[in-house]
Amino acid sequence: MKQLNILYVSVFIFGALAFTACTPTIATRGNIVEDFRMAEITPGVSSRTNVLKSLGSPTTKAPFDDNVWYYIGQKTEKKGIFDPKVVDEKIVVVAFNEEGIVEVMEEIDAERMDIPRVRRKTETGGNDVTVLEQLLGNVGKFNAPDVSATGDR
Question: Residue 94's pLDDT is what?
Fold first, then answer.
């Protein structure tokens, strides 16, 4: 009877551990701009300072135009050993005129292409050496001391 109780407790603990091991891990990267913060910005009225106060620092600026700011945010979910899946993503573009006033603020609909990861390895040149060959490879390959270098004859 005592062994049966130990079996039940063991099965319960194993089941609890297996269940919690599959709990998804959620990660947020970047700046996911909330809609109520976007509503605080008015094109034609709001300045760079207003945007910084409402949305925070941009994730990046356009490479060739400092008047275009990007707010990029992404939320991923990873279950166990599987690759993470994107569950939420938001990209907001804020464009300013030369005076620093917001001209355009829009959310970009980023159609994501799911490109599978390739798990192959790149072949390298050289020989495939086993562990035994590595251990015994240098046996007998030591150079004899150079007699002329020591000055002894």
Answer: 94
Number of domains in the chain: 1
Q: What domain range includes position 79?
A: 19-113
Determine the pLDDT at residue 98: 92
Q: Give the CA distances from residue 84 to residues 19, 24, 25, 78, 115, in Å, rounded to whole numbers and listed in that order.
A: 19, 9, 9, 4, 13
**Would you say residue 78 has pLDDT above 70?**
yes
Asked if the structure places residue 86 within a domain, the reply is: yes
What DSSP state is assigned to residue 60?
Answer: E
